[in-house]
Structure formats: structure tokens, C-alpha cells
Structure prediction request, 368 residues.
Amino acid sequence: MVLLIAAALAIGLKRDAAPPRLSLTPLGFDALPDWASDNPALVVPAFLRSCGRFSKEPDAAPFGPTERGVDYGVVGDWLPACREAAMLPTGNEKAARRFFEATFVMMAVADYGATSGLFTGYFELELDGSRHRHGRYQTPIYRLPPDPGLAHRYSRAQIENGALGGRGFELFWVDGPIDAFFLQIQGSGRIRLEDGELVRVGYDGQNGMPYVPIGRLLVERGEIPHDKVTMASITAWMRAHPAAGAALRREDPSYVFFRIIKGEGPIGAERVALTPERSLAVDRSYIPLGAPIWLAADEQYIPNLRVRRLVVAQDVGGAIKGPVRGDLYWGSGRAAGDRAGEMDARGRYYLLLPRAAAERLAAEEARR
Prediction:
């Protein structure tokens, strides 16, 4: 059936769709860059978390419905893979490799034929905060306003000027606007309260305005060399230039709202706990949440540092746009923050689809 799919598939959106355009091309696992270099058993727990989410839906429900209307099959097409994954011996690399190779069809993802994209990293930030505004705790962390019109009405600058203040939307107050800004970029974090309690917060929405990367602005203005742009270097620049740093942050109109996460976390957009180094944020307009992905990317500015691993699409991000774009979750703590902050890789990824879903795509393309 793989040969039949290969002959039938060159999947894209309809011809009148505006760019970018997703295309999927089936490949054999032996064509993957360094497929044998990773241990696929390490991603099975992450995949099973996704299974636990979509297995609650009706079998006939579309799997990971995307805004672009790509047919990735129905939930019933994916459930046999979940059942097989649940029976795999824990940590057995050979069994896991056989499972993925026998159960899934590998699809090379491209945008109008362009396979290369940008892959960055994120992590769970930790901030000091309080439930009440006082002393050094002057920067609010807001929950999502219940009125969508209100949530989408104001830019970052307007919100920082107090547009939402005094309405009861404050979840916490933290001790610095720079950390609060990066919390929004990361999309999740932990707040250490004055009594030592750690409270996890996660992404719960965005104001609908476009994300403007301030690192790019700093490069364009000659403040930081392109190959030196990291979270640490941006933070250092803003601390050295507090007024200019505040103005710079406001040039990004995007603003993220949070909710309290109880239990295991952080929680991604798929509403499952993320797995360090195995959960990937994608653009769900093109890529379904819950799908395994083979990621092959090379750091642009760190020689010989490569990422070759099987991951699962489990999150989204305001800056993660387009068919070939990803953000790898590295975990919590300083080491994860350092690795996430330095990740600036170019590469490609490959979507794994159950054979039944791949056959649906082949049939759909043949009817066009």
C-alpha cells in the first residue's frame, strides 16, 4: 500500500488557497535522516498521553481538525495505533521501532515544495510572585477575560498601560516585567509564591494580535549580532537598558493569558502534560495535535549540534506559524532554559500517519 500511496499522493491545499500551502509526500523510514540514531521507545509515553485525549472522542470525529481542512482521517483510524502502543514493553527500543515502522506511513512536510523551516525551543520558566499586589510584586499575570471581544481588544502596550486593570482578571503579581514577558513567549511556567508554594500556569489564550519577535528587532537595529541572539542575551540587554527595553517589549502587540494548572504539567494546547524533549509546538492550521513527528534540524550557529528525534505535536505558540515550523519543549529548570534559549535550528520534519489515514488522503487526492 505504501507504493500505491507514493504514486497517488502529492497532497496540497486547493489551488486557489493563499500561501503558504501544505504538501505531504510519503517516504519510507529508510529515507529518514538518522532514523536509527534515536530511541523511539522514549516517545511512547508522550504518544499515549495524546491517545488518552483523543480516545475520548467519537470514532467518527475528525482527527485533529485543522483550519486548512486537511483530512487526517478520523479518530477511529488512530485508535488501533494507541492500543498497540499501550501493549509495548516499557523502554524496549526494538519493539518501539517495529511498532512505528509497521503502523505508520511517513510523510515529508513541505510548504509549496520548500521542506526547510525554523525550529526553536521553549521551556518552563520559574518566577517569583504573590497573590496580591504589594512591594516588588507589581507586574500582573492575567487570566483570559471571559468576553472574547474584551480579550481581543487591546494590544500589549494598552494592557501594560492598565486597560484590563481592576477588573479581577489578575491571577498573580510577579516581581519583574522581563520575566513576565518571557513567560508569555514560553507559554507556561511556575510561580513561586511568598510562602514557598509553586503554582503552575499555562497558556489559556492570546489577544489575537501578531507576534513580533523582539530579538529580530534588536538584530535589525545593530544591538545584538544575529548569531548571539538568545533569551539570555536579550534579557541582559533589557536589564542594561530598562526604558528602551520596556519600549521594545511594547513593539510586540501580542499578549498571552494564563490559567492555573493543577497536577502534572505543564499542559500544552492539546490539554495533555508536555514531555521534555519529546513534545513539539506546531501550527495546528496544518499539523494535527497528537500526531508523531520525526524532527531533523541542525543548529545554525552552534557547530555539530543536531536534533534528531521522534516527538509528538502537543502544543501551539503565537510565533509558530506555517507548515514547516516547530518549537521543541526542553523541560523545566536552568539547563532546559539554556538549551531552549540557544536553539535556533533549520531543518525539516516528517509527519507519521496511520495507514488508514494515509489511505484516506491518497483517495482524496485521487478524486481531485
Summary: The domain at 2-119+274-367 is CATH 2.40.40.10 (Barwin-like endoglucanases). The chain is about 30% helix and 25% strand. Residues 230 and 342 are 5 Å apart (CA to CA).
